[in-house]
Amino acid sequence: MTSGMCVRCGGRIVAFQKESVAREKARQLSDQVGYPVTYRMLKGIMLCGVCLDALPLIGQEICQRCGRDRELQASIGNEGLCRDCVHGEDGQSLVANRSLLRYEKGEKDLLGLFKYRGDERLALYYGTLLAITVQRYYRSIGFTCITTVPLHPQRLRERGFNQVDLLARHLGAAIKIPVKPLLLRTKDTPKLSKQKGRAARHESMREAFVWGGQDIPSAATILLLDDIYTTGSTLRSCAKAIKEHLGPSCEVYSLTIYR
Description:
The chain is built from ten helices and eight strands. By secondary structure, the protein is α/β, with parallel strands linked by helices. It folds into two domains: 1-55, no CATH class; 57-258, Rossmann fold (3-Layer(aba) Sandwich). α1 (15-29) runs antiparallel to α2 (35-44), α2 runs antiparallel to α6 and α6 (120-137) packs across α8 (163-175).
């Protein structure tokens, strides 16, 4: 029995060949209570068994703030934070970040296809990965809404769409949480990949976002969505703008596909 084409390799998805892989990955990603939901999502995701098995999942031992895999950062201390988070600036604006996958070479190529071509199949694929990440890490948190990192109007005109908005649409439908645009981007910053060093990235993101959304409760718990967490400068700048508007009782968590 086949069920469509794999979004990664283009091969046929053979359901019975994928079954055991989906079960094993669900065991890795969830406890006994969360297993059935995670298993159903993995079983339905548009990957063949081989590609599902090859996903570079972030392990169990992570930095408790940014979600970085300990395998990539051996110096996670007793307090559960990596070196960057211990010495980082503005750490209080964002409660925590969680991601599902390590940002490796093959993942960069696939994300590029989605980010610059807008393939709707990949929006569903990535939206499902994000829903699995919520199930893995944030299942017990009652989020008020999902919001996204906005593009600057100039960048939006060039690209034609904001890929994170597509992800939010699929994620919101999957986890039954409303999506609300809360921020505006006021600075057309250079791509982070073209900026050298953490300090330069942090400075470029300073006051890059302002509140532009509708009224929500000041004690809201907000899920802030982006595709990649690199230095965290963008997400922390967004979280700071949200908290400056709503006040200290608001909590902002972030969620990305990649870390």
